[in-house]
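Re-run with default settings, no changes from the original entry. Doing this only to confirm the output is reproducible before filing.
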Amino acid sequence: MKKSQMSIERCATVSTIQKILGGKWKIEILYYIGFQNIQRFGELRRHIGDITESSLTKQLRELEADGFISRFDYKEVPPRVEYSLTELGKSFMPVLEFMKQWGENNLN
């Protein structure tokens, strides 16, 4: 078969993961919630730094819709909302830890 006729098979699983976690801040958000036990919106925003309020809100909503985090609203004034990992989110933490270790070993 000629090179021009060869088809590269895509890995659907990796493609799906990339679509779900491909947001600019999602991996970092999961890191802070999972490893730093940061649960409040304001804390997340301070730790991430450059993220806008609207971007953080959007990324959190998408992570919640995809089942990685849960949101608990205390229904208080002033508003108090906390985020935590779901079982799916917790199951991703070893992958994130491996990525962190790989980065420390290969990117520094």
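DSSP finds five helices and two strands in the chain. The two ends are 42 Å apart (CA to CA).
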